[in-house]
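Lecture notes, unit on protein representations.

Consider one protein chain, 509 amino acids long.
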Amino acid sequence: MTLPLRTVVQALEDAAASSRTGYRFMEEGNTAEPFFTFSGIERATAKFGAAMQALGLRQGDRIALILPDNQDFVFAFLGALRAGIVPVPIYPPAGLRQLTGYLDSTLHILTKSGAKMVLTDSDIKRLLGTLQRRASTLRAIVAVESIRRSREKLRPVKITPEDTCFLQFTSGSTSLPKGVVVSHRNVAANVRAFMQIGLGIHDGVDSGVSWLPLYHDMGLIGFVLAPLFHRNTVTFLPPLLFLKRPVRWLEAISRHRGSISFGPNFAYALCVKRIRDSQLSGLDLSSWRVAGCGAEPIRAANLRAFAQKFEPVGFDPCALLPCYGMAEATLAISFIRLGDGLVSDIVDADAIGTRAVAAPASDTTANPVEVVNCGKAFVDHQLAVFAADDSDSSHPLADRQVGELRLRGPSVTSGYFNEPELTKRAFAGEWMRTGDIGYQVDGDVYICGRSKDLIIINGRNYHPQDLEWAASHIEGVRKGSVLAFGTRRPLKDRERVVVAFETAIREEG
């Protein structure tokens, strides 16, 4: 029997009433790991929600959250939901070097979202001083330290599955960030799909470990919201702690017997590069049954190298779970089948570039490329490939024909906040345009790249990720520091490729 969809607030209340599991917060430079049961989280979030109400925010108002501390973020985000206030996560500044660009991006998000308040810490508040004058709807920038001391009582509000849960602003890698409107119904539908079907979750038993930023959908939905619905314990690490010392991620999985943890492709590559053999002593990764990988192009070689390096300390290569998703689909679209591990397709890159066909490579193929299988769309969702000019999505392409991936189903969001034209262009008939180029084989999806990034030279299509990957293997090129893009010379019609990179070679003298 299918149970009715719950709001995130209902999921938290249910978890608090029936569970002793909860969230653990690791801190950089501190051996203490505060643990809050879901009942404790319910009390803490009531304090945060009540403080927001006392500051004048009402149901439906937007509050921007710029909170680098995971504990503050979780309490503030869930507290806002309980008060019916719509949180708008924004990434914190990385430092002073690019502060002007950061402030411009933040101003754009504040203006587009109509946020009435920013909640941040006292250090960041000092950096945001000019924004209050420049953002017309912004009433105040509030330091979270004052919220922690609040003694206000939460006034309950009625929240339905149709209400907006939060605004997820896209990364803005190819355009200005756009605010995706994510409803409670979207969250519940997506969580049901990827937790029950994709992960085969064990309620109250599986344990998550995550260093992923909570302002990003994978960290937020995957490890803050979804576990509420299934009462699963999660251990959170600060993102910077992982970046400085990747071994801390694996140590946390080992120590807390984590069974589910995700990361983008670069995270697995960083572990291989930065974790020394001497640091493997004492690690036990045998509890890690799902090692998800998504959020950026997946390279099979990186995942193989990770499995090979950490199999001696208990890592199961079959735990690897390549996946596909995007904010406009709430989070997840497809997972490889549990237990299949890394599955890939080696195809003729020239055939993709010239004929838009993913022809299997042979021993004589001059330019083979390996594409990772990201599995099938979840139950109640449909994923298909269409030609870019198929405006009403009436003619899905056959297997191995390369085109635009499009999705429909209950996880698909309604569009972009206060952006009717962008929302209209995001759909082709009943299908949402993902903007991703790929193909299918027997329902399994393979991602080739982003349509907006495509470089066309002499009638052939090049995906910059493939060029960057090839360039990174040239001696002297620093891996992860390569950028490929297309450009046109003045008064010339032909596009050309530019590859910029950092060198790993030091100049002498």
